[in-house]
Amino acid sequence: MAKIFCIANQKGGVGKTTTTVNLAAGLARIGQRVLLVDLDPQGNATMGSGVDKRTLARSVYDVLLGECSVAEAAVPAAQAAGYQVLGANRELAGAEIELVSLEQREKRLKTALAQVDRQFDFVLIDCPPSLSLLTLNGLCAAHGVVVPMQCEYFALEGVTDLLNTIRQVHGNLNPDLQIIGLLRVMFDARITLQQQVSEQLKEHFGDKVFDTVIPRNVRLAEAPSHGLPGVVFDANARGSQAFIAFAQEMVQRVKPRRQPGAKG
Ligand code: ADP
Ligand code: MG
Fold it and tell me: What 3-state class would DSSP assign to 38?
């Protein structure tokens, strides 16, 4: 069964897309079968995976409107990246309005993904920076949410808002939804404020804060212009190494817990 995770934060520019693309590539590197779903009409995760959003024959838009299946729309990411992409482009912005009149409008993605449940170990959904009907489709389809965040002054406030939203979705639409964890990204250990906020996060959220910290690293920012995840563009860069470690931490976190007393 595929584990489905949303990468979400209602703020823009916090590292959602960078996290989705590099976690996808990191998981693929350690042998996991991964589908990346781009739910942002900007299509940055699509382009950053080496798929040209302008020439997509089918996209997540067609899937949401029920015009084709996930299997028909998914395409391979850049060769060395090793995962599949359900891409997005501008067209997706219109889905917001078109979905309103459809039945089960929050559950369209969930229903579509059910068909590829056995083909993938992980489905990673890159959400737009808003609580739109698109994001709701992501949250309804997911087992969990990964929240990338920068350790800045207002970070805690922003996260509290997001956690309240997740609780509401959990209560009303998707009782399976969990917060998998908070991921500290673009971290600069030389900045005292970032260290302080990082400590506050750990005090507040305990083991919901991932052990792995993603440093600010220019190679991660350069990679999209080459149509590659950082992990593929320069696997030895500090940022890429951190995402590979994060992929391993994710696999550990979501491994089914062995029953006490079980054999083997
Ligand atoms: P979002 O999807 O939340 O809007 P992005 O992943 O697009 O955020 O990141 C915003 C900008 O920050 C991009 O230009 C990206 O290349 C850059 N960026 C993201 N993570 C890092 C990092 N760890 N180090 C350096 N630059 C980063
Ligand atoms: Mg983005």
Answer: strand
